[in-house]
Amino acid sequence: MTTDAKAELLRQIRTIRRRIDPDVLARAQKAAEAAEAARTLPPDQVPYDKDAAREVVAAFLRSRNDGGRFAMTLMENLRKPEEATKAYTDPRHAPRPGGKRI
User: Fold this and answer.
1) CB of 58 within 8 A of CB of 64?
2) pLDDT surpasses 70 at 6
């Protein structure tokens, strides 16, 4: 890459960064750092707070107005590892090329 091309690219990056909300940039930086940390963690550690994740899931389940049916179905499916595996290997659930449409 020539010096001029590099300078132009850096100028474009600075211009784009000025238009982005600083809070969004900070969250993106934290996410990037967490992703990098997750790659370097020992196998017995998780890159998230399990207690916080458990509380979020519990709050979601409490907010549902189905008498606990969804929670029971979820718990039954979690006890079937082959069903969970199928969700990740079923081609119908594969992401489409080009990402999400907005």
Assistant:
1) no
2) yes
